TrEMBL record:
<feature type="domain" description="Nuclear receptor">
    <location>
        <begin position="1"/>
        <end position="77"/>
    </location>
</feature>
<keyword id="KW-0479">Metal-binding</keyword>
<dbReference type="GO" id="GO:0003700">
    <property type="term" value="F:DNA-binding transcription factor activity"/>
</dbReference>
<comment type="similarity">
    <text>Belongs to the nuclear hormone receptor family.</text>
</comment>
<feature type="domain" description="NR LBD">
    <location>
        <begin position="86"/>
        <end position="329"/>
    </location>
</feature>
<keyword id="KW-0863">Zinc-finger</keyword>
<dbReference type="InterPro" id="IPR000536">
    <property type="entry name" value="Nucl_hrmn_rcpt_lig-bd"/>
</dbReference>
<keyword id="KW-0805">Transcription regulation</keyword>
<dbReference type="Pfam" id="PF00104">
    <property type="entry name" value="Hormone_recep"/>
</dbReference>
<protein>
    <recommendedName>
        <fullName>Nuclear receptor domain-containing protein</fullName>
    </recommendedName>
</protein>
<keyword id="KW-0862">Zinc</keyword>
<dbReference type="GO" id="GO:0005634">
    <property type="term" value="C:nucleus"/>
</dbReference>
<keyword id="KW-0804">Transcription</keyword>
<dbReference type="InterPro" id="IPR035500">
    <property type="entry name" value="NHR-like_dom_sf"/>
</dbReference>
<dbReference type="GO" id="GO:0008270">
    <property type="term" value="F:zinc ion binding"/>
</dbReference>
<keyword id="KW-0539">Nucleus</keyword>
<keyword id="KW-0238">DNA-binding</keyword>
Length: 329
């Protein structure tokens, strides 16, 4: 492992022209973008800069950043905008997203099987990406590699979150919904594709997949019904899922951006609860965090269903199956 050229910490990749750690990269960015650039050394401008020192001299640290080759001009304007309406931006653009879905998927209200549901997931991928790019100024400023990794991680959660939203609001908990709101067929028909290549009987399919549906009802749907999230709170889940610093394939700089954006989202949620005079705002924030863990659990359940479909040669969409595998490895 390479050591940071500034403080000696471990380094994974280059930042602003030098092999430095995430902490020194963030320090360098903050200084370059700050309005007040006057910093002084309290000693003789030869302070030791080491990761084990709790409070390093800012002046000497900045000098060392420049000495090791960090380039100020490589820092663009801040990616994170000053707007504090990130949840509302996503929510306000949702109507257009639904209109585009109507054009692509049509007005059909027929119940869907697993193959149709996963095919809709693939067709919806580009529409959902467009929706995010319209709704988040920060997302489009992030390098493409990070965008792709963040979105793939987000999209699997989006599939689960939208499906659960429609189930919770339909008043019916005996069957699930796809991400566009279309109800699923009964379980023994849901996992039979158009070609019916499987040798499994309806009873066998029911025995294999019924536990997933039962778990989904007990562990996902019922808890969400109890939480009673309103539309603003539920939309906040989508923004938090999008800027998830644990997403596979993003660099350390993107992790830092996600961390900052999520802090802004939490402040938006807190402000919203103050505006509506919520009687238990701190408990409500905990409810939203719990809902996020439910979405992660739902992603794993859906990924497991794809795995079983492959195992038993049940029809499904291979491209969506691959996205689930890559993001949940």
């Amino acid at each position: 492992m390479i050591s940071c050229a500034v403080c000696g910490a471990q380094v994974i990749e280059s930042h602003f022209g030098a092999m430095v750690c995430r902490a020194c990269s963030a320090f360098f960015r903050r200084y370059v973008l700050s309005k007040n650039k006057t910093i002084l050394c309290e000693k003789n401008e030869n302070c030791v800069i080491n990761r084990n020192i709790k409070k390093m001299c800012r002046f000497c640290r900045m000098v060392k950043c420049l000495q090791v080759g960090m380039i100020p001009t490589r820092i663009n304007e801040p990616i994170i905008s000053k707007s504090t309406d990130k949840i509302l931006e996503l929510l306000n653009n949702y109507t257009r997203f639904q209109e585009e879905r109507f054009i692509v998927h049509g007005p059909s209200v027929e119940k869907i099987n697993f193959l149709t549901a996963s095919t809709i997931m693939e067709a919806d991928y580009r529409l959902a990406r467009n929706h995010i790019e319209r709704s988040s100024k920060e997302f489009v400023k992030i390098p493409k590699k990070n965008q792709n990794a963040l979105f793939d991680h987000y999209y699997t959660g989006c599939i689960v979150a939208e499906g659960l939203y429609f189930v919770v609001n339909s008043g019916r908990t005996d069957r699930f919904c796809g991400q566009t709101g279309r109800q699923t067929l009964p379980i023994e028909q849901y996992f039979l594709g158009e070609h019916k290549n499987t040798i499994l009987t309806d009873t066998q399919i029911n025995d294999i997949f019924q536990p997933f549906w039962r778990r989904g009802l007990i562990e996902l749907v019922n808890p969400l019904i109890e939480l009673k999230l309103d539309l603003f709170e539920y939309t906040s889940l989508f923004v938090l899922m999008l800027f998830d610093g644990s997403s596979k394939g993003i660099d350390e700089e993107c992790v830092e951006i996600c961390y900052q954006i999520r802090n802004i989202i939490f402040r938006e949620i807190s402000s919203y609860h103050k505006e509506i005079d919520h009687p238990r705002p701190f408990d409500r924030m905990a409810d939203i965090m719990h809902a996020l863990t439910l979405m992660e659990k739902g992603k794993q359940m859906l990924a497991d269903q794809f795995t079983l479909c492959c195992l038993h040669k049940l029809d499904h969409n291979e491209q969506i199956c691959l996205i689930f595998k890559e993001t949940l490895q």
